[in-house]
Design a protein that fits this description.
about 575 residues, alpha/beta, 9-stranded mixed beta sheet, 8-stranded parallel beta sheet, about 30% helix, globular, hydrolase, hydrolase activity, acting on carbon-nitrogen (but not peptide) bonds, in cyclic amides, Metallo-dep_Hydrolases_sf
């Protein structure tokens, strides 16, 4: 007797992704779509027993940098290891298209500096058989991968493509330059770009230490470019504003772009660890924008924003000390042996940092530098910081960090909690996440290979706030809404993030009781043998994309149903 459905997820507790009440029942899937939701559904060719488990929509990761990884790899991990079924790349205005052959080295330099992807990895991993942004999208569409991916048109490549060396040098765009960028933007939207992305952040530097092409560009340029989205009738404006300049100066960029283009916007928001809660003022401005008829959403990391530091990684507390250069080329065991020498110890404990990339300095913010062990604690008590431990021991924070490296044979990791940890608490992150115009994000999957591993934020949200939230608890229905439909709608994706009859069969079966986030680890699976941080989870019993099982019991199945998700202007013309 033939089965009625391709697959049935049977007996789970279902969160619909819209924030509705949890229900008990089955989900039947046929042809990549949800065919029925109810109890005691007919048989499926495949069945998954979800008794005692939770069934959620596949998560939408709105802020990634898989622009390169989606070319050289078929798995968009870590994101796909944490329940994500759709990822959005091209954020922060960096990427690889449009690009002439003569500008490839420059774009690699930008990506290496801003996103910590080694140049040799990109040189080895990218075949560059595209020039225009539509050609790049076609390249992505032709590839195989585990999850779906969508792309913004990035500002830095666009500016250099339109202006050449003048664009890289951050010269003011001429009217002809602006007209060309507007036309290319409209072309990109019609080819399927999800929107346009840029960065104004002052600490975003090239690998050479220079400002990126988009830093401090005139707002009139952004108005002209997003006019291309207006011409195409589609697209979301994504921006990293420079909070260091002050929100009262930076937030008006959002308002001006929305007013000029009529398009929605999304931007990065975090609380500071100290000082007045300026983020509440931003929420007020965000509410005013939406009340006035605009559409804007902030992206919020559900845990502290920061870096992971260690001897095997890009930064560590002694990386820019002059004496470190003497042993930087050695293996970690050899470095540890050298660090046991009293003379080198004395030098490294007293030397100031030499000039270097601003990210390096963040590994010496002693008050907010914590040990990161297994299981990883992303909300450690203040007394566990290097400064807190030093005060208790009557020594310097440098000594605490140095001794940790020796005691762990150089393998010890540090968490530099640089934001979203106001007064050593996640209360600010919790309040922002629950705001109607904020969505979880900023995982940066596909980038910061040697310094950040935040693509696991979906698992962290579930383990920290749902499973163990206490006073900061978030219900599973609300969390599934945050990670599903709420995130999807914020970036213009209207066909995913929910569990409904007729909808896409992108979903997770989760053992919430057993859901566990493990310590980040270094793997060497990038082109040219490059290393990256990866973070595993256990507790995802199944993840499906378009009805195909891509992961089962936290292991990949080898299925590759993932496709390029083209934006609304492309779909309207199709």
């Amino acid at each position: 007797m033939a089965a009625d459905y391709d697959m049935v997820i049977r007996g789970g507790t279902i969160a619909d992704g819209m924030g509705g009440d949890l229900i008990e029942g089955d989900i039947a899937i046929t042809g990549g779509r949800i065919a029925a939701i109810g109890k005691n559904l007919a048989r499926g060719t495949q069945e998954i027993d979800a008794q005692g488990k939770f069934v959620t929509p596949g998560f939408i990761d709105v802020h990634t940098h898989y622009d390169g990884q989606c070319i050289w790899a078929e798995e968009l991990s870590p994101s796909s290891s944490h329940g994500v079924t759709t990822a959005v790349m091209g954020n922060c205005g960096v990427g690889f298209a449009p690009c002439r052959k003569s500008d490839r080295e420059m774009l690699v330099n930008v990506m290496e500096g801003v996103e910590d992807i080694p140049g040799v990895v990109m040189t080895e991993g990218l075949d560059w058989d595209w020039e225009t942004f539509p050609e790049y999208l076609d390249k992505v569409a032709a590839g195989k991968r585990d999850i779906d991916i969508a792309a913004y048109l990035p500002h830095s490549p666009l500016r250099v493509y339109a202006m050449g060396a003048r664009g890289a040098a951050r010269e003011v765009a001429t009217p002809d330059d602006l007209a060309l960028m507007r036309r290319l933007t409209a072309e990109a939207m019609r080819a399927g770009a999800l929107g346009f992305a840029t960065s104004r952040l002052s600490i975003h530097k090239t690998a050479s230490g220079d400002a990126i092409p988009t830093f401090d560009t005139d707002i009139a340029e952004l108005e002209a470019i997003t006019g291309g989205m207006k011409d195409a009738g589609a697209g979301t404006f994504q921006v990293v504003l420079d909070a260091f300049r002050g929100w009262d100066k930076e937030y008006p960029v959002i308002e001006r772009v929305i007013a000029a283009s009529g398009r929605p916007a999304t931007f990065t928001l975090a609380s500071g660890n100290e000082g007045p809660p300026r983020w509440r003022r931003v929420l007020d401005m965000l509410e005013a924008t939406n009340a006035a008829g605009g559409t804007a959403h902030a992206q919020v990391m559900p845990r502290p924003i920061g870096l992971i530091a260690g001897l095997e990684l890009t930064v560590h507390p002694f990386v820019l000390c002059p004496s470190w250069a003497k042993i930087a080329h050695l293996s970690i065991p050899e470095q540890v042996a050298a660090m046991r020498d009293p003379a080198l110890r004395a030098a490294l404990l007293t030397e100031d940092f030499a000039p270097g990339h601003p990210f390096n300095e963040l590994a010496r913010n002693w008050r907010w530098l914590f040990p990161l062990d297994n299981p990883p604690d992303y909300a450690p008590p203040a007394h566990m910081s290097m400064a807190g431990q030093a005060e208790a021991r009557g020594c310097t924070p440098q000594e605490v960090a140095y001794d940790r490296l020796l005691e762990t044979e150089g393998r010890g990791l540090f968490l530099a909690a640089l934001g979203n940890y106001e007064n050593a608490s996640l209360a600010s992150a919790h309040e922002m996440l629950r705001h109607p115009y904020c969505v979880p994000g900023l995982g940066d999957g596909g980038a910061h290979y040697g310094a950040i591993c935040d693509a696991s934020y979906s698992t962290y949200l579930l383990t920290q706030f749902v499973k163990g939230g206490g006073a900061l608890a978030i219900g599973l229905a609300e969390a599934a809404h945050m990670l599903g439909a709420k995130a999807a709608r914020a970036v213009g994706l209207t066909d995913r993030g929910t569990l409904a009859v007729g909808g896409r069969a992108d979903l997770n079966v989760i053992d919430l009781d057993g859901l566990t986030l493990h310590l980040p680890e270094v793997v060497r699976d990038l082109p040219a043998g490059g290393r990256r941080l990866h973070q595993r989870a256990t507790g995802y019993e199944a993840t499906l994309v378009a009805g195909e099982l891509i992961r089962r019991f936290d292991q990949p199945t080898g299925a590759r149903p993932g496709r390029l998700v083209r934006g609304a202007a492309y779909r309207a013309a199709a």
